[in-house]
Design goal:
mainly alpha; three-stranded antiparallel sheet; 5 strands; two-stranded antiparallel sheet; globular
């Protein structure tokens, strides 16, 4: 009774002092056998007090019984025995952070191998933490995952859009942009039809969220998949199984595109006719090889934080935007700034891209840690069927409507690759076919996909898919 009374008094004190929305973490620790207090807010939930008795740390949360607190203690903390400290010990925040960063780094290095390249860096990082969670090395839920999802993911979105100059996209892509827009419409149509035919009931309340995430993935890329997952608050298990199933089928889809492109002529003439001159790739190459400095990294990070701050304020202030969330608003803000000041943001795009990719890797690591292998195995078959229907309708729509507008098939296939895989895979596809004039346009339309996919998919999910 005394403990409960003290806990209520401490909660009232904390709520009075720190009632505003912020991320607070404060701890006062002393030697073994004394008390340890902590205040932590994550998504407006307080972890109000912990009491240290001997080598065991018990967590006290308002309105929880002592037995519930002890259960939480056993899940998230452990005791030191015989000089061995288990992975979930009371100072485990550092262990979880280290696990996330190491898994993200492992994914980047694994991608250099043939198997890792086939799986992708994101999937390698996700599978690493998924296994760690399911063997008991990592918790299913942790404040570290909340920090990554709530702060690093929103900051990654503007960082990865620093090269999204819409004026340059419209100027240099010609017919390829029309083909890309057709492909985007085909993806939206395919998502709606697939949701009607394969409703993903095994995912429960995450079904329409996963459909929206896959729609974003097949218009823009992984950054949009992540952005929509965070905007719609999809569960870690749903995110893990969706990405795993999608990566496998996308690899097969790329093989199909290579088969369909066999024997097609070089589309230089088509590009020259649509833009007025052959497209050169010197500007893009100079951007990719520009030296990254510490000052560039600091400036890029500062700008991203300011854009996210403005996006949150605008989202809270305008009632209509609350339903969409902060990330679509942040996307629109950074697109406007990059289009207005292209040279400034182009100079920072190298540093911004490095930070953005690292933050995305951390997201995938956190998503894997929140996942369950049994949930992955249960949901995979329906997701395979959903993605097959979605991509089949996308390809049929692209080739059918593209032929009506007399767009060369080579442009249609490159644009479809940019839709499904993103700018990097589209440029690689054009390079492998020796379509030199399409390399930079493929990159540009892929970046354009980054620009529109998040907003379009969140709107589709909130107003269409959720009702199906």
């Amino acid at each position: 009774a005394l403990r409960r009374k003290e806990s209520k008094m401490w909660n009232a004190y904390v709520t009075g002092c720190f009632g505003f929305q912020s991320a607070i973490s404060r701890s006062i620790c002393s030697d073994e056998g004394t008390k340890r207090f902590a205040v932590c807010e994550s998504r407006n939930r307080f972890l109000n007090r912990t009491q240290r008795v001997g080598s065991k740390c018990s967590v006290f949360v308002p309105n929880q019984s002592l037995s519930q607190a002890q259960t939480l203690d056993r899940k998230n903390h452990s005791r030191s025995r015989g000089g061995q400290i288990s992975m979930g010990y009371s100072g485990g925040v550092w262990f979880v952070w280290a696990s996330m960063i190491c898994a993200a780094t492992f994914g980047l290095f694994a991608e250099r191998t043939s198997l890792g390249a086939a799986l992708s860096a994101s999937l390698c990082a996700m599978f690493t933490t998924l296994v760690m969670t399911n063997i008991g090395m990592l918790p299913n839920q942790h404040v570290v995952y909340d920090v990554i999802n709530s702060f690093l993911v929103p900051m990654a979105v503007p960082l990865l859009l620093f090269s999204a100059n819409l004026r340059r996209v419209l100027r240099d892509t010609g017919s390829l942009l029309r083909a890309f827009v057709i492909g985007s419409v085909g993806t939206i149509l395919g998502t709606v039809v697939a949701m009607a035919l394969v409703p993903l009931r095994s995912l429960g309340s995450d079904s329409w969220k996963v459909a929206s995430m896959l729609c974003a993935r097949h218009i823009g890329g992984a950054v949009n998949f992540v952005a929509v997952a965070e905007a719609l608050q999809a569960s870690g298990s749903a995110t893990t199984v969706a990405l795993a199933a999608d990566n496998l089928l996308v690899a097969l889809y790329f093989m199909l595109l290579f088969g369909l492109s066999s024997g097609l002529p070089d589309p230089v003439a088509a590009i020259a006719a649509s833009t007025g001159a052959p497209v050169q790739d010197s500007e893009q190459q100079s951007t990719l090889t520009a030296k990254v400095t510490l000052q560039d990294i600091a400036i890029a990070l500062s700008i991203s934080a300011l854009i996210c701050t403005a996006g949150q304020y605008i989202t809270i202030s305008i009632p209509f935007l609350k339903a969409l969330g902060m990330i679509p608003v942040v996307t629109l803000l950074v697109l406007g700034l990059v289009t207005l000041m292209p040279r400034f943001f182009e100079r920072l795009s190298g540093a911004a891209n490095i930070l953005g990719i690292l933050f995305m890797q951390l997201f995938f690591a956190a998503a894997g840690a929140s996942g369950s292998i049994s949930a992955v195995l249960k949901s995979a078959p329906s997701l395979f069927a959903f993605i097959l229907v979605q991509l089949a309708i996308h390809l049929a729509f692209v080739l059918g409507v593209g032929s009506v507008f007399q767009i060369p098939r080579s442009l249609l296939l490159v644009s479809s690759n940019a839709n499904v895989g993103g700018p990097t895979t589209a440029a690689g596809f054009a390079t492998s076919k020796n379509w030199v004039s399409l390399i930079v346009p493929a990159l540009l339309v892929g970046v354009f996909g980054y620009s529109i996919a998040t907003f379009a998919s969140v709107v589709l999910g909130r107003f269409v898919l959720i009702k199906m």
